[in-house]
Amino acid sequence: MTDHAALTGAAPGAATPTTPELHTPLHEEHLALGAMMVSFAGWQMPLRYSSDLEEHRATRTAAGLFDLTHMGEIDVVGPQAVAALDYALVGAMGRIAIGRAKYTMICAEDGGVIDDLVVYRLGKDHFMVVANASNCAIVIEELRARFHGFDVTLTDDSLTTALLAVQGPEAEAIVTALVDDPADADAVRALHYYASVPATVAGVQARVARTGYTGEDGFELFVSTDDAVTVWHALCAAGEPHGLIPAGLSARDSLRLEAGMPLYGQELDRTTTPHDAGLGRVVALDKPGDFVGKAALRSRAGSEPARLLVGLEGLTRRAARTGYPVLVGPSGPHVGTVTSGAPSPTLGHPIAMAYVTPEVSGPGTLLAVDVRGRAEQVRVVALPFYRRP
After folding, report:
1. Taking burial as the number of CB atoms within 10 A of a residue's CB, which of 117, 269, 302, 334 is the most buried?
2. Rounded to whole angstroms, how far apart are CA atoms 372 and 76?
3. Where in the chain is the domain with CATH 3.30.70.1400?
């Protein structure tokens, strides 16, 4: 889960000349490290520090440190928090155990995806909803409207919460070395994927979650914006012997593509249902009561798909990119469109995700992508492209 246009510097909700861009509390740290900064969803964010390839490979082999403070954090609390969220979102929030998290979506009445979200259950009646930066204001507006009549309070904590991510094989060693209390360190080590615990990290109160968007093991640390610099410096120092380096949006995008994770604005948007993206499992049609989009999503779940999201393995050196047509053979009919594509640093050949018609969606099917006027052969493969050992 992340935002659209990580590599173009444009996104829905981006700043206008009359809207000053936001800086994360780590802005000066990024500049001091020589980061290339880009305009992204109304924020100035680091695209890269050294090279995309170096940051990608460090995350796969050691650890990458990401500033994700642009993401939105929405606090939902009250005796009807479960009922309100179950009505507003497609997943069954009441089934999340305290201390666990769930990937879910907020959809329109027609089933189109407004945003993909991660929801953390912090207590019996207390949740934190994490939204993409480009959609945060829209998500808050939708939630407020959908919460009408429920005994629940919504608070936007986005501008007071910093989010740092440590991803990679060395992430556990780096993060637990900074957890002050040995019992808390043990709790962090014991975390399951999509779970979180409160802990004191480098003397700072944090919520440590074992989540991420890279395909690697890793942790996301939610802290006060006032404490972000302290935690960043501590992670850099603790991570240096392990090979940790700061990583920007570009590496984050190539990592998530290898892991086959959808990107809002490319694989997901308001014209796409969860089922189109192969994510029908996140829709809890069996949960009690109604929810926004239920009728449309029930109908979609039982109907023949018009298109399906697939992985494409490039069989030549030229990479498919977003928006390129997918063809049956060099001069065959147009059967789909690439949503994301790039050379894979880990696999050593181009990869892409694309929506294609069902008859050509089977693994092993040979297709072509029109790459700037030349048909490049690709093979349909199962997602994800990469799974960590």
Report:
1. 117
2. 47
3. 72-156
3-class SS of residue 243: coil
Q: What angle do the packed helices 52-61 and 249-258 form, to 10 degrees?
A: 50
> Can you name the residues that pair with 375 across neighbouring β-strands?
370
| Ranges of CATH 2.40.30.110 domains, the chain | 304-381
- Which pLDDT tens digit goes with each residue over 67-98? 999 999 999 999 999 999 999 999 999 999 99
Q: Which of 93, 73, 71, 74 is nearest to 154 (CA)?
A: 74
Q: What single-letter DSSP state applies at residue 316?
A: S
**Residues 278 and 309 sit within 8 Å (Cβ to Cβ):** yes
**Cα separation, 146 vs 162, whole angstroms:** 27
For residues 132 and 249, give the distance between their C-alpha atoms in angstroms, rounded to a whole number: 13
How many angstroms separate the Cα of 111 from the Cα of each of 66, 134, 135, 230, 283? 32, 20, 17, 42, 10
Question: Whole-prediction pTM value?
Answer: 0.94
CATH class of 72-156: alpha beta
Interatomic CA distance for residues 205 and 227, integer angstroms: 9
Neighbour tally for 191: CB within 10 Å: 20
Q: Tokens 């050992």 belong to which residue?
A: 389
pLDDT per position as a tens digit, 236-290: 999 999 999 999 999 999 999 999 999 999 999 999 999 999 999 999 999 999 9
In the chain, CATH 3.30.1360.120 covers 22-71+160-258
Nearest CA among 121, 156, 161, 127 for reference residue 141: 156
Q: Calculate the alpha carbon distances from 322 to 205, 314, 316, 361 in Å.
A: 40, 14, 17, 18
Q: How far apart are CA 92 and CA 121, in angstroms?
A: 12
Answer yes or no: CATH 3.40.640.10 is held by domain 304-381.
no
